[in-house]
TrEMBL record:
Name this protein carries in UniProt: Macrophage migration inhibitory factor
Database matches in InterPro entries: Macrophage_inhib_fac, Tautomerase/MIF_sf
Provenance organism: Handroanthus impetiginosus
Organism domain of life: Eukaryota
Similarity field: Belongs to the MIF family.
Membrane spanning residue stretches: none
Molecular functions per Gene Ontology: phenylpyruvate tautomerase activity
UniProt-listed Enzyme Commission number(s): 5.3.2.1
Lineage: Eukaryota, Viridiplantae, Streptophyta, Embryophyta, Tracheophyta
GO cellular component: extracellular space
């Protein structure tokens, strides 16, 4: 059930968002060892955002997962998502934060119940 929420101040108009969603989804599934069928990716563009006092391209993300997160995996996920944002949206890796949340299944709703 991993869910990656990405927000950026970059406009998504004219951007192939499907390729971003697809690459992010497969990367998250692979690195967490979870079925991609349960991975959700949310991408929001044109979000008012300043980083380091400027409004140059920047992004913020939060990744929620039931297990699978650890320092090594987090580093790989951060690298993979930063590469996608840099390649697809020209967001420099140095202007992107990614926060990780490891949660219990009882704290996450799905299909009218919890995990």
């Amino acid at each position: 059930m991993p869910c990656l929420n990405l927000s950026t101040n970059v406009s998504l108009e004219g951007v192939d968002t499907s390729s971003i969603l697809s690459e992010a989804s497969s990367s998250v599934a692979k690195l967490l060892g979870k079925p991609e069928a349960y991975v959700m990716i949310v991408l929001k563009g044109s979000v008012p955002m300043a980083f380091g006092g400027t409004e140059q391209p920047a992004a913020y993300g939060e990744l929620l997962s039931i297990g699978g997160l650890n320092p090594d995996v987090n580093k790989k996920l951060s690298s993979a998502i930063a590469n996608i944002l840099e390649t697809k949206l020209s967001v420099p890796k140095s202007r992107f934060y990614l926060k990780f949340y490891d949660t219990k299944g009882s704290n996450l709703g799905w299909n009218g119940s919890t995990f």
